[in-house]
Each structure stands twice: as structure tokens, then as C-alpha cells.
Amino acid sequence: xxxxxxxxxxxxxxxxxxxxxxxxxxxxxxxxxxxxxxxxxxxxxxxxxxxxxxxxxxxxxxxxxxxxxxxxxxxxxxxxxxxxxxxxxxxxxxxxxxxxxxxxxxxxxxxxxxxxxxxxxxxxxxxxxxxxxxxxxxxxxxxxxxxxxxxxxxxxxxxxxxxxxxxxxxxxxxxxxxxxxxxxxxxxxxxxxxxxxxxxxxxxxxxxxxxxxxxxxxxxxxxxxxxxxxxxxxxxxxxxxxxxxxxxxxxxxxxxxxxxxxxxxxxxxxxxxxxxxxxxxxxxxxxxxxxxxxxxxxxxxxxxxxxxxxxxxxxxxxxxxxxxxxxxxxxxxxxxxxxxxxxxxxxxxxxxxxxxxxxxxxxxxxxxxxxxxxxxxxxxxxxxxxxxxxxxxxxxxxxxxxxxxxxxxxxxxxxxxxxxxxxxxxxxxxxxxxxxxxxxxxxxxxxxxxxxxxxxxxxxxxxxxxxxxxxxxxxxxxxxxxxxxxxxxxxxxxxxxxxxxxxxxxxxxxxxxxxxxxxxxxxxxxxxxxxxxxxxxxxxxxxxxxxxxxxxxxxxxxxxxxxx
Length: 564
Prior knowledge:
single chain, about 575 residues, alpha+beta, Dna Ligase, domain 1, five-stranded antiparallel sheet, disordered N terminus
């Protein structure tokens, strides 16, 4: 056996230790590759959601109150009101004592619920796994048979948070920090405070940290106990009666619960406490239901004043079209029909002495599906100019219920096209709005051999312009193939065939014979020929000639059409 030198043995030992250090050295959490089964949940808590859904002046102190019987308490306060010392949970009388010119608004849970759904649909561009955060309150032993709610179903659920599962989106957005920054950018235009964002490996922990104002990033489930241990029991998702029992035993926070023996804690209080502690530590799976984006869009804007002026209505319409554009862009879709409703208050009164509301409906339909606001705005402006508004308008609503896949149009690389040249399809839209859809039409072919019945008028924005399915596309390809195989026909047909002198008829060959229409008692039998142009006779157009084989004198020829 050949002896190795000391230097060689030392070099091999150092290489072996280096490889062991590479294997056993823990990778930083921010750079660790997540496994296929691991999850990363982002919790977004909106502490000022009730302020986001109400109209208020940012320079005035505004509070949103909850009313339960005769008791009125402050639910949330704006930044100006907070500077006066007003906080959530304070009575309204105490808030008035701190600030005289206080603007008080009643809380609207239905509007908050719609706004939270709108936020969730807005964030679908980052991940499809989004759920509305709801406390899954641990049930007491006396009501074990009660079904625990796991999703938000109505405004009564009082939800103010969102949960996003983003483990499959990190590579697309180049890591978690970049994704969090993009999510914060989505809410930079909010009037109130930005949402509180936390990250955890399970939804309950992310929701708990966000609702307690903890903007922590925890990716390892083993670190959850140390991060959540200082949260008080009155801030967790446990029944109030159960929290009071734990408090009487000297338990103040989650760390105190984890220090007790698990079996004794479950036997003394409830198994639901153990289940909840397991959920927030990612030791027990949680069923969640993700929100689905609707295939239709509805939105309404209340005007600040009642008006009949068109330019004020257009301002509200432009804002609605921007929201329609965001909705269609989020779904990678387009539409060719948008409905606008102008709501106004009439001067008539009903039997209940209440003002009756009415509306004026405007339908904007385009020849080609699109999602740009500038595509629909000119046509709507044409309709508004021709509209006589008899009553003051106080609201404008929009509805999109026909969503089609978005097809991006090809553009010139060097932008050689004139920017002032109007797009042809947009020109058709303006003409239809100005003249009426029934006055603008095109021509289409029909399956008939007779030239007089082989075409018909077709509206540009009717049912014929809708997207065909796969079967209709195959039929159209077959029809195009047959059309190419048949002899050519002129586009210009005369209203009445004109007879010509058959003695001066130049030599030509028969190109087509037609015999059809017997099933409609309009039988025709014709022989068609194409007459060549004759420069000597100053005739530069090819004529489409035919003779009637049903007549006794078959030597009579007629001109039926002209070639371009």
C-alpha cells in the first residue's frame, strides 16, 4: 500500500470538512427554497376599512361609530381625530368632549364587505389563492355541535382582513420582499392608513399577527411560538367566556398556555383550545375556501350634486371606465358591450310620499372587443350629446356581463402609422353612435347559387359579429375552400340585367352554368360567360354576361355584372 504524504492527507481532510459544513450549515430563511408542500400566507389587515368606504374631507376630524341600542362607541377615527386623542372603543360623548367639530358617520358593514371583496379581486393578479379572513372562533364544550364558519359569507361576518397564499408566486415576482412591495403599492392611493401586512406559514398565524399590528415575517413554523407568545389572550380567536376562565387562572398570553401541560390544559378547559393552539403553530391543517372572481362587473358612483350637465357625468363615467379596465385587465379579458345607467330623482311622488327613482340606460357596443377606456368613451359621448336629460342625475352605474378573451392587436415596431389616423373599428363605433346601429351595415354571403340571393345586408354590431365557436370556424374554412374552387364572380351586380347586341358579342368561353331555385318556384337556368376587355372599343372593364336557357330564343345575352 502506497503511503500518502502529510500534505495530501491534510488536504483531503480539509475538503471533507468543507463539504460537511456546506451540508449542515443552515440556509438563511429568506433564501431557503420552499418545498412543494410548504405554504406562505400573507395576512392583510385593514384597520381603517370603515373609513375607506365613506366620503369625508381629509382636513376634518371624522369618526365611524357602532350603535348597539342606545350605546354609541367609536369604531375607527381618522388621523385628524386621532390627533385630538380619540381612539377606537371610546364612547361618542367622550369623543365630543375631546373635539367639538366632530364629523360623525354611522358604520356601513355592507359597504365594508363589498370593499373587502373588491380588494380581494384586485389582488388576484398576484395569486389565485385568496380568502377573506374570518376568526374561526373555538367553540365551547356546550356548543360542540355548532358548525364553525371558515369563510366570510355576508357583511354580518364583520371581516376586515385578507389572506393570500403566495408560495407559488415567489419565483414570478423575484422573491418575497419584491412581492410585498408590489402589494403595498396597490394600496398607496388609499385615503386612510395602509394595511398591516404579516407573513406566516399558516393562515391563522398570519391573521393573528396582522390583526394585532405585528408586521413580522415568519417562514419557519418552529419560530411561531416565540413570535406569538407575547400576544394577550383577549386579542386571540377564543370565546370571551373561555378567555375569562383562563385569566382567572393567571394565564395572560399565549406563552402562558404553552407552558402548561398539554393534556391538563385540554382536560381542564376544552379540546378546542388545543386545536386553536395547533392551528396558529401550523401543526394542524386548516380548511379554507378561496374567492372566485366574478365574470361580470358592476359598480356605482354617487355624484356629489344632482346635475344635468354632460361634462360632469362624463367625469364619473371616466372613473367607472378605469375600474372596468382594471377588472378586464385582471382577467385578461375584453368586452364589446357596456351598459351605463344614469340614475336621477324625478319630481313625482308615490303613495308613501317618497321620491320615486328612475334611470336612463345607455348601451355602448363596439365592433371589436376591447378593454381600453378611450375605445368606449367617444361613443358614449355621442350618445350623451343626443340625449335630452329631463331630471337631475345623482348617480351613474356601469355593468359588464359579456366577457370575452382578450386578443392583443399587432402593432408596428417602428410606429410608422400616422397617429392621427383613426382606427377603422373605432370609426365604425362612432358612426353607429351618431347614425344608429341600424344605419351602418356590411355585406355577407349566403349559401345560394343564384347571384341575386347570394348576398345580404348584415349589421356590424349584431349577432353576426360575435365570436364563433370551433365548429363554426371549421364550417367557415370549408366555405372559403369551396369559394376559392368556384369561378370568380363580380362584386358589382346591376339592379336589372341589361340586354346587349349579340351580333357584336366577342368570343368567350362558358365559365359557369346555374340551375337552381325550383324549390322556391323561382327557377333559373343560365349560362354565364366572362367578356374580355377590348381596348380598341375603349372598353376596359370585364363584363359578366349570361343567356337565359329557359327562353325560346337563347341567342339573347344580358350584362349582369362588372368586374373591377
